[in-house]
Specification:
Elements lengths: L1 H14 L19 H15 L16 H12 L6
Helix pairs in contact: 1-2, 1-3
């Protein structure tokens, strides 16, 4: 799980250079996310982790923080995600 967090944090830091994100910081509440960035994030996750983000996966709670994203990716990789 830590490896997932590191990769996600590295990706997010490219966009949020002036803010050091903690695992549970809400990137939506902080105002960092717009629709274009949301699509970039989904594409990054699909490519980086070899998974498919389905329509039913597009719940804001799956993408709200580094921890939430890592939990989502981990559950998709393990086949445990129930969207």
């Amino acid at each position: 799980m830590e490896e997932i967090k590191i990769k996600v944090r590295t990706f997010l830091n490219r966009f949020f250079r002036k803010h050091e994100l903690d695992d549970n910081d809400d990137i939506f509440a902080l105002g960092f996310v717009n629709s274009l960035f949301a699509m970039q994030l989904v594409m990054f996750l699909e490519k980086e982790f070899g998974l498919r983000v389905e329509n039913e996966d597009l719940d804001i709670n799956n993408f709200r923080s580094i921890q939430a994203i890592a939990d989502f990716v981990s559950s998709k990789q393990n086949g445990c995600y129930k969207g």
